[in-house]
Amino acid sequence: MISQLIADARKIIFKIGSNTLAGSDGKINYFFLDEFAEQTAALMKKGKQIVIVSSGAQIAGLSAMDKWARKKDIHYRQALCAVGQVQLMKAWQQAFDENGFHIAQILLTREDFSDTNRTLNMRNTLFTLVDEGIIPIINENDTVSVEEIKIGDNDTLAANSAILWSADLLILFSDIDGLYDKNPKEFPQAELVEEVRDIDSVRKNITIGAANNFGTGGIATKLDAAQLALSYGIPTILTNGGSPRSVEALAAGAQKGTVFLA
User: Fold this and answer.
1) Sequence-separated (6 or more) residues with CB below 8 Å from residue 145
2) Interhelix angle for 154-165 vs 219-230, to 10°?
3) For the chain, how many helices (H) and strands (E)?
4) Pairing between strand 103-108 and 135-140?
5) What does the alpha-carbon distance between residue 31 and residue 241 come to, in Å, rounded to a whole number?
6) What Cα–Cα distance (Å) separates residue 250 from each residue in 118, 135, 194, 199, 259?
7) Which long-range contacts (CB under 8 A, 24 or more apart) does 212-216 make?
8) Measuring CA to CA, which residue among 160, 156, 151, 167 is closest to residue 216?
9) CA 98 from centre of chain
10) Taking a C-beta distance cutoff of 8 angstroms, is the pair 135, 103 a contact?
11) pLDDT tens across 108-126, in order?
């Protein structure tokens, strides 16, 4: 199912979560970026169009400003994101440079999606960049979105971006293999749910855990994002972005995940 969805899709959005982007030290995992860029570049050379929604501004900020790691004040966290966004884009650019592709930065807020003129401008920019073979890297504008730093997530941003771009497929990379009936980190007997067609029913029958340390969203936000994307006919895959060569493995049908279908 997963490999067929990827084969059939021309316009794919990848959402990279903070835990996927971070190494064991809590800083940018450059090996992951290089490997991911190589694999997505190969997809583009086969005619796929790619947009990336990337978390990680705070992680990238900590990579550059480790002395701010323990500061919890919102102004420092916003400043950390401002520093980190530069480092994050630099890391993405270096990764894609090696594969012959340019990237572009797009910073958005939730309010951008509720304003007709902004939405039209965002859509036109996305289509122009992609048509020219440039990879848009979308992130929340954390330096001005205080609410997003507190409780927000990029899963919803990815779903909204998929709708805006009329994507064929949304792939949410996380640090788990997909949706389980229980939290697999607490319950070793938890079972992977490989296909979901009724998200409301799933919510009633699984145990939803809390958000992780790096990211702002837990499994609940991923269910919300999948449901939002599905309401516009966009199938969604939740899978482990940290698995070896995960993009290639998904395309080959060698990696499991959860597929959300209407």
Assistant:
1) 109, 110, 152
2) 10
3) 11, 10
4) parallel
5) 12
6) 34, 20, 13, 22, 12
7) 212/18, 212/19, 212/175, 213/19, 214/18, 214/19, 214/22, 214/26, 214/58, 214/59, 215/17, 215/18, 215/19, 215/55, 215/153, 216/18, 216/148, 216/149, 216/151, 216/152, 216/153, 216/154
8) 151
9) 22
10) yes
11) 987 888 889 999 999 999 9
Residue whose entry in the numeric block shows the structure tokens 């994002």 = 225
**Distance between alpha carbon 88 and the CA centroid of its chain, in Å?**
14
CB atoms within 10 A of CB 53: 28
pLDDT of residue 140: 85
From CA 246, how far away is CA 32, in angstroms rounded?
A: 10
59: tokens are: 């992680």
- 86 vs 220: CA distance, rounded Å: 29
pLDDT 10s digits, 183-228 = 777 888 889 999 999 999 888 877 665 544 333 457 888 999 999 9
Instruction: Find the DSSP H helices in 183-237.
Output: 199-205, 219-230
Coil, helix or strand for 12? strand
Q: Which residues contact 25 (CB under 8 A, 6 or more apart)?
A: none
Which DSSP letter does residue 28 get? B
Number of residues that make up the chain: 262
Rounded to 5 degrees, what are φ and ψ at 18? Answer: -60, -40
Quick one: how far is CA 176 from the chain centroid? 13
SS (H, E, C) 152-165: CCHHHHHHHHHHHH
DSSP 121: H
The answer to whether 197 and 171 are in contact (CB under 8 A) is no
User: What is the distance between the alpha carbons of residues 100 and 38, in angstroms, rounded to a whole number?
Assistant: 10
